[in-house]
Amino acid sequence: MKQVYFIFLLLCYLGVFGQENITLNNTYPTNYFQNPLGIPSVLSGTFGELRPNHFHAGLDLKTEQKEGLKVYASAQGYVSRIKISLWGYGKAIYITHPNGYTTVYAHLQKFNNRIEAYIKKQQYKIESFEIQVFPFANELPITENEIIAYSGSTGGFVGPHLHFEIRNTESEKPINPMLFGIEINDSKKPIINTLVGYSLNADSHINNIAVPTQLSIVNLKNGELLANKIRAFGKIGFGINSYDQQDNSSNKNGLYSLSMFVNGEKVYNFNASSFSFDESKYINLLIDYERLENLNQQVQKCFIEPSNKLSLCTEYDSNGYITVEDGLTYTVEIIAEDFKGNTQKITIPIEGKKDSIIVVTTQKVTSYKINYTQFNKFTIDGITVAFPKNTFYQDFYLDFEVNDSLVKVHSPIVPLDKKYTLTFDVSKYSNDEKKQLYIASVNKNGKTNYETTVKKDTTFYTSTKKLGNFTLLSDSKNPKVNLHNFKNEQWLTNFETLKIKISDYESGINTYRGEIDGEWILLEYNVKNGILTYNFSDKEFTTAKHQLKVFVTDNVGNTNSINATFFRKK
Question: What is the value of pTM for the model shown?
């Protein structure tokens, strides 16, 4: 066994070494990884797709709108990581392969029997549903096309699908799986819906307007797009709202490439090939962050902001910025492309004309000037906001207000690079009142959401990347706990599972614990429907009568529990 393990590690090393050469040549093995599903690949999400606050790190493969499809290992290797969480990837398996890559399979319903037994043993050991483990190479070896799991919809409010990734094992950078030959039928060209023009310095304008403006476009007979000629001057840029669709899919997915040319010279290129998770936050500089908040429209800029360090964007001398001079003409072409090479082009004719500006950007000036390269701290009526250096990407005036119980920390139209701290002085509250208080964010529809609240004697604080409205709320109600698929003192001999319904509509569920006959049991929590599920196959019962107890705690410490008796034949 030791010799086999040594040979496997040697192969891994040689694979990694070979991978370095492959990466340098910008080519990937195209016949190594197989489709992880036993059905044709249809996408509901593409690699590098623009998502809230991040880029999509893999392919979302459709599972015929159902759960339980067999998930196959794309190649031989070993399970190097298993993670189970209520949010994010849900139930996920990571398989390390001897060629220097790791595949990831996420949102799974369950694992195969061997992996399921392994992870349940670890869950019972630490008494937790949520878990992350890193098996050794010889613990869970995997053969090519082995059934490793079954597709599901775990990990928050997601529908049934399989999230599939290929990563460089050493760097952990995700790489577009389509570069490895994962075949997707796609004969459709991308769609460009909206063209936006940006005036980017004090004296620049587009059609006498110095604020972001939507530009008119028409469809040509050849299928390309043409913008109405614009008059412009100074430093300007463009952005588009676009999407791509593959065959047999109505989903509006992301582009593979977006390029811009000025008078035939390429000045901007975005390519969804690979990125690091650390740089994913820069998506908020790539998109028109304010437009997304105000109009719910995602516009990708065709220019690179100075603080944008995305490796997905190629650096050019102008980085997509266009300096229009009076009396000159320019032809701008923006080309949206999918992985199969289908393209959509929009042409923008520009006449350079320095003219008067009739619409300008107005900025609300406040007493709270943010110097983004310095630490900034402001206090009003016992409410303090503290921003570490480089929380933001530029200087601006912070709109900070306190009106009764509502605190406004600007509007969510400015992207943040890191978290800041919001602190409430709670010295006026009694100890009993403070036990039930928590910090909540308030969205534009008035809906509140619990923010992780750290409680000190006289202050409560939260660390967040959210801007907007916040308040202190009190939660005095206990969580609800109810039997779901059975009644007290019922015989459950033929039942495969036992289900409990839990809920808390104020501060929200924090922890739960289940016991049968005084021993901890594994309860799987579905956050979409609030159901806790226990699988009877986890335990052999030696008596008929059993006592169930479930304890639930919310985020301020209110608790509730339920006791029930059930019977089950040995």
Answer: 0.92
